[in-house]
Every structure is written in structure tokens, then in C-alpha cells.
Amino acid sequence: MGNFDTPSLSRDAALLPDTGEPGFGVYVHWPFCAAKCPYCDFNSHVRHQPVDQERFASAFLKEMAAVRAMSGPKTVTSIFLGGGTPSLMKPETVSAILDGIARHWHVPAGIEITMEANPSSVEAERFRGYRAAGVNRVSLGVQALNDRDLKFLGRLHDVADALKAIRLARDIFPRMSFDLIYARPEQTVAEWEKELKEAISYAVDHLSLYQLTIEEGTPFFGLHKSGKLIVPDGEQSALLYEATQEITAREGMPAYEVSNHARPGAESRHNLTYWRYGDYAGVGPGAHGRLTRGYEKIATATERKPEAWLEMVERDGHGILDQERLGFEEQSDELLLMGLRLREGVDLARWQQLSGRELDPKREEFLLEHKFVERIGNSRLRCTPSGMLILDSVVADLAC
User: Fold this and answer.
1) Helix residue spans in the chain (DSSP H)
2) What digits encode the pLDDT tens for the residues 28-58?
3) Distance in angstroms (rounded) separating the CA atoms of residues 280 and 288
4) Count of Cβ atoms closer than 10 Å to residue 347 Cβ
5) What are the backbone angles phi and psi of residue 358, rounded to the nearest 5°?
6) Contact at 8 Å (CB) between 279 and 22?
7) pTM > 0.90: yes or no
8) Pseudo-torsion of CA 222, 178, 142, 214, nearest 10°?
9) 45-51 CB contacts, 8 Å cutoff, 24+ apart
């Protein structure tokens, strides 16, 4: 089993450089939230009684052992505590989880360790506790910088809470990011440009900027279907997207992925592992994973309901419901789908090795002529900004 190189150093070491390799990440899903947002289709649950954190932490560690048996020995390149709202965890719970990861895999000093947090659940002492536990990057779910839209989005915090959380995160953690949702009802390009410039002024090094999407099964879906919720049409959404790209690039935070922007060197290492189609262990209710064993890749998925997952882990040692063996064609499709989201594009030699074929020259030529994709030398292919707007269609065309 692995361990931190030196526990006292691993929590304060300088961030290791990005090697450009896919890496191996560990994702831990904390499924609980203080409230369910009306746009959210993530695996998150509200509980009105205190959660037994010690019991859940013990189950996380137990499932880690099962996943470690599947993955074999690995060197971890990033850890991500997602949710739900991981900042509802006690620092002691976070510390137990991180120490457990270090017992099961090799965790070098200086890797990225991210935790998601909501401004409404932020306290200075908790943040300091998370930092002492080993977290060196925080991702805040701000979502909007005006109180009207925060209320519309069902957020429990206001702008004052968000700014307080941003200041605390900036003071306590070496790296931070926050999320914003745009293409909100009646939002103009001018309003979004002003809000985005304000966000960049808060000295963050990373922003995740998502267009509001209406997901089936959410309260917003029903409102939208009945005509009570109108979101910007395709043309307006495209204008908002283009304004996003222009402003972030001008301000030194260009897009390195469809929805993610960073100052050079501040890209999310963990998310790069997903987009570069690396392996990652998924632990916790509703967590997904990708684990390579020999020539095959195993897609894992756990039970989504927290209490059902907990009982499964305590009874069987894990809550994994699905272990799907992905063939080379499925792997090559996933590699294309993930890699074309990145500004650095897809390694064509790797894609060809997985797929056993080359890209259809006629399909590629069509996309090149219409400036939806472009070559980077002879080894990589990426989407252009206009291609990013129709990414799903580009991927489908190339994968045929």
C-alpha cells in the first residue's frame, strides 16, 4: 500500500509541474447538500438529520481497499473531493479520507488536492482545518455575482457570502477556482461581460464557466417544459459564449477546455486527467471510475443512494454496481469525446492505436475546410472555437 512521502511535507510542498501525461486521479464523492438547487442533476441529497460522518468515512476507506485491489499499485497525480457539498464535512473526515488514500496508493508530495465548497457552508476554521488536512486547492460554487440570480438559482448564499468565501480561500489555499453559470434568463451580453470582468478581478487563477442547461428530472425542466422558464436561444447563447472566450483570453485566462479557463500553469490537474483519458478511481455513492487492467479498461459505477451504498459497503466491502469492460472502439470514442474538449486536442497516434484505424480523410477534410477542426503539427487534432460550439456533432462525425 502507498503512503505520503513525508506527511509533514506533502501538505505544503510546491505543486508538481504538469507533465502532459494523463495521470491517475482519485475522486471521492460526498453526496450531501444543505439544499438541492433547481438546475442540478448531480447525485446530491438533502438530509435533515446529522449525517454519521464517522460511519461514512469508514465506508470510504473500506471501498478504497476494494478499488485498490482492482487498480493495483498506482502513483496518484491528483485527488478531488466532489459532491454534493464536501465543505459540509468536518476537517477530521477530510483528513481521514486523505490519509486513507495515502495508505492505498502512492501519494507524492506536491500533487493537486481539490475540494469543492459552497460559500454558504464556509467558515474560516473549517478552511484552515481542510488546509491542515492536505487540501491545497478549493473550488467554490459561486454561480452568480448578483443576489437576484443567486435566488433564482436556488443558492443559499448571497454575494456578500461569496466574496467572503473567495477572500478566505485566497488567503488560506495556494490555489482556488470558482464556478459561474451564464446564459441565465434575460441575461444580456453586456451584463455578462461586466459580471465576468468582476469575477476575474478577484485574483482567482481558475474559472469554470458553464452555460445554464435544462436537465431532465430537475425542477427547472418542468418549468421550462411548461413555458414558465425561458432561457437564451441558440444565437444568444453563442454570443454569450463568444464574449466569454474574448474576455478571458484578453485577461490572461484563456479556455484550456470548453468551460474551463486558467492562467498558464493553473489548469485543474484532476480534470485534465479526465479529458486526457487517464485512469481514475471513483469512491463513494454514485462515483464513476476508469481503471486500466492489461489491455482493457474497466468502467466502474457505484450505488447512487447514500444509505443503500453505505449498507452495501459494510456488507460487501464496496458499493460498486457496474464493472463494464470497454473494448478498443469504445475507448477510442471516449478518448475522442474527452480530448476534443481540450485546447491541446487529441493525440492522434494514441487514438489510432486504440481504434485500429485512421480518421476518415473525407470527414476530416470537410471539418478542416469549414474550420471546425485544425491540425497541430502532424500529431494532434483539436477543435477550433467555432467547432467547440458544435462539439458533439464534430465528435460524432469523426468517430464514424
Assistant:
1) 7-10, 53-71, 91-104, 124-133, 147-152, 159-172, 189-200, 219-225, 234-250, 269-275, 306-316, 328-339, 348-355, 361-369, 385-388, 391-399
2) 999 999 888 888 878 888 888 899 999 999 9
3) 8
4) 19
5) -100, 165
6) yes
7) yes
8) -10
9) 45/84, 45/305, 45/306, 51/88
Q: What are 220's three cell numbers?
A: 427547472
Let me know: does 375 contact 384? Beta carbons within 8 Å.
no
Start-to-end Cα distance in the chain: 42
Beta strands 32-33 and 45-46 are: parallel
DSSP 14: P
The tens digit of pLDDT for each residue in 283-342 reads 999 999 999 988 889 999 999 999 999 999 999 999 999 999 999 989 999 999 999 999
> Which domains are present in the chain?
24-274 (3.20.20.70), 344-399 (no CATH)
Nine-digit cell string for 208: 469554470
Residues in the chain where the model's pLDDT stays below 70: 1-12
> Residue 312 phi/psi, 5° resolution?
-60, -45
Residue 110: helix, strand or coil by DSSP?
coil
